[in-house]
Each structure stands twice: as structure tokens, then as C-alpha cells.
Amino acid sequence: MAQVQNEVLELPVLPLRDVVVFPHMVIPLFVGRDKSMRALEQAMEADKRILLVAQKSAETDDPAAADLYAVGTLAQVLQLLKLPDGTIKVLVEGLSRVNVDKVVEVDGALQGRGTEVASSDAREPREVEAVARSLMSLFEQYVKTNRKLPPELLQTLSGIDEPGRLADTIAAHIGVRLADKQRLLETTEVGERLEMLVGLVDGEIDVQQLEKRIRGRVKSQMEKSQREYYLNEQMKAIQKELGDLDDAPGELEELARKIAEAGMPKPVETKAKAELNKLKQMSPMSAEAAVVRNYLDWLLGVPWKKRSKVRKDLKVAQDTLDADHYGLEKVKDRILEYLAVQSRVKQMKGPILCLVGPPGVGKTSLGQSIAKATNRKFVRMSLGGVRDEAEIRGHRRTYVGSMPGRIVQNLNKVGSKNPLFVLDEIDKMSMDFRGDPSSALLEVLDPEQNNSFNDHYLEVDLDLSEVMFVATSNSLNIPGPLLDRMEVIRIPGYTEDEKLNIATRYLVPKQTKANGLKPEELEIGEDAIRDIVRYYTRESGVRNLEREIAKICRKVVKEIALAGPQPAKKAAARKGAAKKPKALVVVDAGNLDKYLGVRRFDFGRAEEQNEIGLVTGLAWTEVGGDLLQIESTLVPGKGQLILTGQLGNVMKESASAALSVVRSRAERLGIDVDFLQKQDVHVHVPDGATPKDGPSAGIAMVTSLVSVLTKVPVKSDVAMTGEITLRGRVSAIGGLKEKLLAALRGGIRTVLIPDENRKDLADIPANVTRDLQIVPVKWIDEVLDLALETPLGPKSAAKDKSRKSGARVAVRGKSKAPSTTRVKH
């Protein structure tokens, strides 16, 4: 066993960063810190011995005693060389371990005091020898796998017999952490130090093997990539020689750039990159390459992140809607409600509206106005006649000439993910063996599903939740599940006054400009526009009205062109210099036929005199309301009810119910109970060429039958509408607004409506309720009292007195022209 030396050393200290010097180790050091260079100078002035102590942290630039380890190495300076940059290169040799007790700064350098420590042998020599051999075997393996160590090192180690020196030499050459090396330096027992080294070397061998495997794998991948690159370049060269290659690399790079910049969701981007990789492996002129390239073009054309900034200014939106359309308050209020909510809620799904109304009322153009008001891009998709599901969802890519559905096509066309999407004529779709497009629209119009709409061609999910869908329809003949997904807003036909306003404000200026006329060259009077509405068009909208105005404009342009400029100048000279010259051509009711020809339509008018069995009913049609004449008469027969006038099943049943009501009240009404024994009742509804149906003529039929059976005339200025029950109760009907407008236009003074429809009067224009006497009724007795000239039954005198005192019904004068109208229902 070696003895421990107790000599106390006081020597300069050289702090080391990231290095531990062991005994018997020769190592060059580069010194650049002032204190370290001063310590070297002091050592060279003395016996060239110095203490080498490692720093705990290499980042400490000016270490003190606390920053140094407690065990260092006594070293001998072998050589010192000053470099041009001011640093010193010094070659030192480790001599022995030193326990450093104290470190202080003296004359600008660190001075340390310590005790030299020798190694101890506490184990059996044979055990130490066995551990040393095991260490040597492992280190040989370590040197073979570590290219940084020279093979001659093994020959040097084989000549070392002392286990402690062998351990220090091996410790100096393994690449372990600083803390592990310092621990080896602090371990004085040789056997323990050897065992520590065995563990460290074994661990380093495992790390080296792992690194070798990683390097091999990376190398293999690099070789594969290089091989693929070489083959691809070779293939491109061959294709170029064959003339097949046409700037393919630039096209592929452009596609890769577009995919990176498209802002696709992660699954979509993965799909696009996979298709691009397939395209790279194909010949550019092959059919498969064309299919993949076309697919990528469609996929990149989808606006994945492009969106319009939705306007939230309600005042601007309201002004935009009012400027483009007259009336339509319900639709405008719904759009403003949506914008108001959106101004508070950031993530809001677009509403799905369905505008239901007759043709020409502005459903499609209203969609354009909504897009303008909300600052969305506008796209329209016509569904009229669509019968193939692939029109909505697209075709599978396996088919020749396949392409995405029209939803994706229109989104690509408009270039925004939140446009206003008009689904025009949604009620005109049909179905056949190729599928049902209305079922495909269920996913599109479902707010809970359309955030992941899947087109058959793209085969990826597309978010439609930000799209504002507006469907248009002429009727509610739409499949129930599809109708349930939409918010239905009914747009009724325009009234006569509304058409007059629309023509004056919008249509006349529009057509004047479209036909090259100046405002001062043409003036169309209100009476002329009203006559156009009444006698030249029969529609709920204003489409034909605009055509007739355009026809007037064309004829005026022709008239001015043929007349030339001279008559206009002479006329102006005769009238003198006026500040506001009169229009060159004035169209009014008197000369309207000159431009539009003879009248093409007429409307129902009230009869001039009271007649027996003739009642004025009210009918609703798709183009508005009209008067409906109901005639009854008695003919010899056997009690049959004869119905003519192309009546539908519902209307026939209504006539049967009316006859039953009359028979049940015959005695009360002063009618012979056996009136059907020898005569038939014939009810006719002109004109016979027009089909009619519906229950709302029930009370009119009862009144007509009672009139013909009692020989009491019906007042000609009274019109009525309502369904009749067997108990004589008057039930509610629909289309009240259109019917009342027809009554006002036809010269009716009093209109009898069901009491249940009283609530609908809130939607009736003020001029209609002002000019008509509208009387809600509950029972048929009230209807008969108001409609017949004289009361019926035993209480006739009292009822007649009551009616005269109340003066509820005014009798029309006979100033109206005789009716030539063919009333259509």
C-alpha cells in the first residue's frame, strides 16, 4: 500500500474550463485570462510547478475559490510559447493529485494551498488485476469504434503495469462529461476508480454503437435519395430527348409553392402533397398525369382562407337595401338582424334563407342587394331542371371527364369562402335514376353538417359554414327535409300602388338610360303606368311591366329619330327660353294605346245592379287576386246539384256543403223544405275554360243558393270570401291581401271576410283598409243579412230596421262601365 504524502504546497493556481488534467498526462493548454497568465509567470519564475484546478462552470470568466473544485492536479510546465494574439500556449504534465484547501488572489494571480495525495490500494491485487484487464478489453473495443483515438495508444497502455496509472491514462482519453472526469480525479482508491471506468467506457461503447447505427441509417437514406435523384434526372433527360418534357420541373415547383401558400387544412394539404408526389413519378404527357394535374388545379382553386370582410354598419346596409328594392320589409329586417347579431358574435354561421314568391318580385335581384349590403361576393346557381346528384356533389375521379359539383365550381369562380350563394329556383329540381339532387342539398343547407361538406371529386372536407345561402322558389313544393333546413320568408306579389312606385323610381329611369334617352326626352305619367299594370300585364311581379316600359322607350327613340332634331328646335323656339323645358314626348292614359296597342287584359269589376243568384266572390291566383262571379239557378229536375265551370274536388265538396247548409236552415230562411223534389240546382262559376279549386267560395255559394231560392237579389257592391261548415260557421281563408286588392280595383265597396282572418288586416296597406269597408263575420246568418237586399225569415222587419239604422253597407252608383272581364281563379 502506498503511503499518503503530507507535504503542504503553496503554488499558483491555473483555473481550467471544460478540462480535467490527470497525473501522468501531458496536455497543451491555451491561456488568455490575465490572472491565468500572471499565474504562469509566477510559476516560471519559481520551480515551474503549478496547480491545475477545473472550474465548476465554464461560463465563469473570473473564478474565485467557490467556483473551483476542491481537488486538482499538481503539474510541471514543460514548455511555454506566447502567440501573436497575446495568448499563451503552454505544455504541462500532470504529476499528482492535490487536495486544495485554500485559494486566494496574490499579486494579480490565484494562489493555492494544498496537500499532495497519493493513490491507495485497499483491495486484493488479484481483484484489481482482473478489473484492470476487463477495463483494458473494453478500452480496446472503444478505441476501435472511436476514430479520434490513434491505434498506437493501445501499445502505450500495454506497457503500463501500474493499475493506478493505467486508470488515469484511460480516464484522460475517454469522452465523458466533466463531472465524471472530476469524480475520477477525486477517487484515490485504485480499484474503485477502475470499476468506475469500466462503467463509463461500457456506456461510451453503447453510445458509439448507437451513433454508428444512426450514421448508417442516415447514409442509407442519403444514398437512396441520391439514387432517386439520379434516376429522376436520367428519366428527365430521356424524356427531353424524346420531346415529352415541357418545363415540367418549373410547373411542379409552382404547384408545390401554391400548395404551401393555399392555407389548406392539414388533411387537405397532406392529400395535395400526396397527389403532387404521384404526379412527379408520371410522364407529363400521360393521361394519368393530366387527371392528377386537373385535380390539383381544382383543389388549389378552392378559397381555403380567402374571405370577404363582412360589413357590420347597419345604416349603410339598410340604405343599400332600400336603394335597390321597394318594400320587402320582412326580408330587409331579417338581413339587418343577422348583421346586428354578427357585430357582437365573431363566429356566426351564415343564415340559410328561402325566399318564396311569384315570378318577377325580385327574389334573385334581392340576393344581389344582400351581397352588396353585407359586402359579400355574389354567386348564383340555377337549379331549374337539375336532376343529377353529381351536379351538387361532383363526379368520382374514376369517370372520364369528371369534375367537381357546382357548389365547388362556383366557390372557385368567386374566389371567397364566405360569399352570398343564391340557389335559384330550388323548387324546379327533379329526380331520376341518377339520383335526387334535393337530397344532396340536405348536407349543403344543414348548418350542423355543412362545415364538412364532402365533394365526390375532391374527396376532402370543405367548410361551407361561412357561406350565406339564399334559396329562391315560386312555391313551397319542396321536399320536407330540405324545407325544414331553411328559414322561409314569403314575398307576396306587389300591389298596384307598389308597382306604380317601383316603375316610377326604378324601371322608368333604368329603361330610359338603357335605350339612350335623356330624362327630358320622355315622360311617362302615373295614369299611364297604372293602365299598363291593369290592362297590359297580369303578373305578381314587375318583369312584364319593365318589358312594356322598355317597349315604350324603343318606340319613343324611333319616333325622335324619324322626326329629327328640327321639330324639337322649332318647338323650343315657339315656347321661348324656358328654365325647365317640357319633355319632348309625354305618354299618358290617352295615348298609351299608340305605343302598346290594344289592351290585352282586363280585371273583374263589380256588377252594376243587384241580381238574383249572382254573388261576387274573391279568388287568389299566382299573379294576384281577382273577382269571382258565382251564378245559381233552378231548373226542372229531381233534386240534383249540377256544378259547372271546371271546378276542382275541393270546390265541388264546398258546393255540396253549401247546399246542405241551405237545406238545414230552409225553414228559418223562409224556403220551402221540399224545394229539391221537382227541380235541380245548377251552380256555375265563369269562365268555363279556367280550372278553379279551393274552399274559400263556400259562403258565396250559400248566398247564391239562398238568393235564387228566396228570389231576393244580392247586393252588387258586396264581395265575400270564406269557407263554410255544416253548422254555418265561416272559417279562415288565405291570400287575403291579394283578394282585398282585387276588390278595391274592381269597385267593390264592402268585403265580408272570416272573423278568424281579422289578425291578417295588420298586413294590409292603409289605403285598402281606408277605401274598403271590411266586415269580419263568424256565421252565415251575418253574411246573408249583409249581402241580400232584404232580410229573410220571421225576424225580417227587425233585421231590416237594424241594417238601415246602422248603415254599414253603401250601395254603389251606376257610373262604372259594364264588365267585360273573364275572371280567372
Structure characterization notes:
This protein is α/β, with parallel strands linked by helices and 825 residues long. It has 5 domains: 8-117, LON domain-like (Archaeosine Trna-guanine Transglycosylase, Chain: A, domain 4, Roll), CATH 2.30.130; 248-301, no CATH class; 314-490, Rossmann fold, CATH 3.40.50; 496-595, Helicase, Ruva Protein, domain 3 (Orthogonal Bundle); 614-806, Ribosomal Protein S5, domain 2, CATH 3.30.230. Helices cover 43% and strands 17% of the residues. The protein has 28 helices and 24 strands. α7 packs antiparallel against α8 and α10 runs antiparallel to α12. The termini are far apart.
Per-chain topology:
Blueprint: E1 8-16, E2 26-31, H1 34-45, E3 49-54, E4 71-82, E5 88-106, E6 109-117, H2 125-145, H3 152-158, H4 163-173, H5 178-186, H6 190-242, H7 248-261, H8 266-280, H9 287-301, H10 314-324, H11 329-342, E7 352-356, H12 363-374, E8 378-382, H13 390-393, H14 406-414, E9 420-424, H15 437-444, E10 453-454, E11 461-462, E12 468-473, H16 480-484, E13 487-490, H17 496-514, E14 522-524, H18 526-536, H19 543-563, H20 565-575, E15 585-587, H21 592-596, E16 614-621, E17 624-636, E18 641-644, H22 649-664, H23 666-669, E19 679-684, H24 698-710, E20 718-720, E21 723-724, E22 730-731, H25 736-745, E23 750-754, H26 766-771, E24 773-777, H27 780-787, H28 796-806
Parallel strand pairs: 1-3, 7-12, 7-13, 8-9, 9-12, 14-15, 16-20, 18-19, 20-23, 23-24
Antiparallel strand pairs: 1-6, 2-5, 3-4, 4-5, 5-6, 10-11, 16-17, 17-19, 21-22
Helix pairs in contact: 2-4, 2-6, 4-6, 7-8, 8-9, 10-11, 10-12, 17-18, 17-19, 22-24, 24-27
